[in-house]
Amino acid sequence: MRELNELPKEFEKLKNRPKNLFYKGDISLLNRAKISIVGTRRPNQYTKARTEELSKKLANIGYVIVSGAAMGVDAIAHKGAFPNTIAVMANSLDIIYPAVNRALIEDIYSNALAISEYGSATKATKYSFVHRNRLVVALGEVLIITQADLKSGSLRSFEYAKQMGKEVFVLSHRVGESLGTQKLIKDAEAKVIVDIDEFVSQFGTIEKCEDEFSFLDTPKPLKEALSIYGEELYMMELEGKVVIENLMVRKA
Predict the structure, then answer these.
(1) Structural domain boundaries of the chain?
(2) What is the dotted CATH code of the domain comprising 2-205?
(3) What is the pLDDT of residues 148-187, one digit of tens each?
(4) First vs last C-alpha separation in the chain
């Protein structure tokens, strides 16, 4: 764990800038274009697939994905963009938390970048989780919330983004799901990502993925596949692209 000589330029206008910033990994990632992705610790299958797709495609056009190394959406965003990712920790870097993400966090320490404003032997607290969100948001050009409940840390991240004048984007969800982001849409506080390729193209040129069904690289339960592709799945079957049998779906 080393200490940065100076704070990233994105932190200069923060009212409560960190006094110190410690890091492990590739510090050059701070100098690249960045987008922040956050969300629930309990994402549904649709959110998992779309978060991974978003982070991977943004990383492929040169963006670094910033998140908080928590379970759920954070971890998926880091993995999708790896090694083009920055984890902002709510504890000191000599502590691995959450333990369930140990392998991911250690990989980030070695091949990506983790930063923290906390010195040695500092455990995460409810306050530090919320407080670190301001740094996650500050680093990104925009904030993407892929799924959130009405009362969640992700909506606190939205508040930070609003204070900083940053655009907020959310995924479209079915009625009754992701009520936090649904409210942001209803209140005209966030823009909806309907087509991921179209969204990513705002930030750079992308190559159309030859295999748009990578979610089905391994057979999946029909219910999971329907949550991702909807009724289009049956059209894919008619076109001979997938096979549906015994309530499982696989590539043809």
Answers:
(1) 2-205, 210-252
(2) 3.40.50.450
(3) 999 899 999 999 999 999 999 999 999 999 999 999 999 9
(4) 48
